[in-house]
Design goal:
By secondary structure, the chain is an all-alpha fold. It contains six helices and no strands.
Length: 202
């Protein structure tokens, strides 16, 4: 069971890594498109049209595709003023409870997105914009992100539950706990070290 969960989490991590890279590309493309549209409108007095619509799709899709990576890296914002002062056993139980609550919320959200997509396909819905984008296209991509998020949450809950039952609170913290200041500092240090060779080439 533990080996299966380890492989499942590993697969989710690889998928999430590629998804967040694509999400970043979406965001960058949206920023470039909007910037180009602003410049053309400023200096040529024309607009390419659809920049705001496409950037909205990119933001929505990119956000959903980045959720799984954020969860696996424990990079989400957490208010831990009280959490950091709790006994380890209580904090570990709350970490599991938080994952279960997240599963319920994201499961409901995914279900609602699925219903919206079904309606768009049934009625061949299009955006009421000059582009008249078929709405099933961005909605499908949006749903993929939430599906990946669910695929990532499930093995984490099982792994954290097993670790908690065994009293392995270190594993619970590693998988689902709030990051400590030391971990944050270590990550920033690694980022700085990775950027130093690039700075030296200038």
């Amino acid at each position: 069971m533990t080996t299966l969960l380890h492989r499942w989490i590993g697969l989710a991590d690889r998928l999430a890594t590629w998804a967040v890279r694509i999400a970043g590309a979406f965001m960058l493309a949206a920023a470039l498109l909007v910037s180009f549209d602003v410049l053309v409108r400023k200096f040529a007095g024309v607009t390419i049209g659809g920049a705001d619509e496409l950037s909205g799709y990119a933001f929505a899709v990119g956000t959903s595709w980045a959720l799984a990576f954020t969860l696996l890296r424990r990079a989400n914002v957490r208010v831990d003023a009280l959490y950091s002062r709790l006994p380890e056993r209580v904090a570990a139980a709350l970490d599991l409870l938080a994952l279960v609550a997240l599963l319920v919320f994201v499961g409901y959200l995914t279900w609602r997105v699925t219903l919206v997509l079904q309606d768009s396909l049934l009625f061949s819905a299009r955006a009421t914009t000059p582009l008249a984008t078929p709405l099933w296209i961005p909605q499908s991509l949006w749903l993929v992100g939430f599906g990946l998020f669910l695929f990532t949450i499930l093995p984490l809950i099982l792994a954290v539950g097993i670790a908690l039952a065994k009293g392995d609170r270190a594993t619970v913290r590693r998988l689902a706990g709030a990051r400590t200041l030391e971990e944050e500092a270590a990550e920033e240090k690694s980022h700085t070290a990775a950027l130093q060779p690039l700075a030296g080439e200038r």
